[in-house]
Amino acid sequence: MAEMGNLWEDLRKQARQLENEIDLKLVSFSKLGTSYTSHRDGDRSNVPKEQSSDTSPLLNRSSSEHMFDTMAMEIEQLLTKLTQVNDRMVEYTQNISLSSPSAALLHTLQRHRDILQDYTHEFQKTRANITALREREDLLGSVRREISTYKNSTGLSRRTELYLKENDHIRNSERLVDEQISIAIATKENLTSQNKVLSSITQRVNSLANRFPIINSLVQRINLRKRRDSIILGCVVGVCIILLLLYMFH
To answer: Taking CA 111 as the corner, what is the angle to CA 107 and CA 117, rounded to the nearest 5 degrees?
Structure first.
């Protein structure tokens, strides 16, 4: 039991030591982010117009970014160690669960876990802010370089602009062609489906006609009467036209 108590005290001592180190590192890390921001602003305001933004601030920026990466790696390692210590403390409480651990022990464990969570959240927030600032500065630097390149090579930029416009026209044409092809495919599928429907209706009618001979004969009579009516109507129209022509010429 004494050994278990000594183990718990050792774990608490390690956790407090790591928490103190992480606290100091986070303060320095936060100051680094603040100085990084002010350094960026100072570089933009102090660099003369005729001087490129990628000459003198390059070394300072590189050293700041290296320091940021190094400190972030150190804090991540300390957080990993503190997480391992907290896991061992959880295992300790689980091992003595049969002897009903005291509320003070559980409270201490929860406090260390909350501290770890707070430090992790603060570290991630600070790192995300500085990373976003770095990405923004890199984007602005690339834009400045593109603008400088544009000013130094106007003719090339004009040709590039013409190529981009031509590329846009080609893309628009391809898009219109794709839309027309899609419409044609949809129309074909619609006609195919209608053809299938009509074929199925015709097959059903034929099957009904074959099943019922009376209906088949009735349909044939109707068709014969239609043909006869058509022939009579044609003859009447022909006779009328002939009589009209005879009347006009005589």
So the answer is: 145
Handedness of CA 209, 215, 219, 221 (dihedral sign): positive
Residues 67, 231: Cα–Cα separation, whole Å: 103
Rounded to the nearest 10°, the torsion over CA 58, 63, 64, 67 is 160
**Which has more confidence, 179 or 56?**
179
Q: Are 78 and 18 in contact (CB under 8 A)?
A: yes
Q: Do 79 and 69 meet the contact criterion of CB atoms below 8 Å apart?
A: no
Q: Under a CB-based contact definition with an 8 Å cutoff, are residues 28 and 88 in contact?
A: no
CA 236 to chain centre: 75
What are the C-alpha distances in Å from 236 to residues 32, 226, 239, 244? 107, 15, 5, 12
DSSP for 4-56, please give it: HHHHHHHHHHHHHHHHHHHHHHHHHHHHHHHHHHHHHHHHHHHS-TTS-TTST
Count CB neighbours of 83 within 10 A: 14
| Residue 38 pLDDT > 50 | yes
Q: From CA 193, how far away is CA 221, in angstroms rounded?
A: 32
Q: How many Å apart are CA 95 and CA 117, to the nearest integer?
A: 24
Please give the model's pTM, rounded to 2 decimal places.
0.47
pLDDT at residue 140 above 70? yes
80: helix, coil or strand?
A: helix
Contact status, residue 86 vs residue 116, Cβ threshold 8 Å: yes
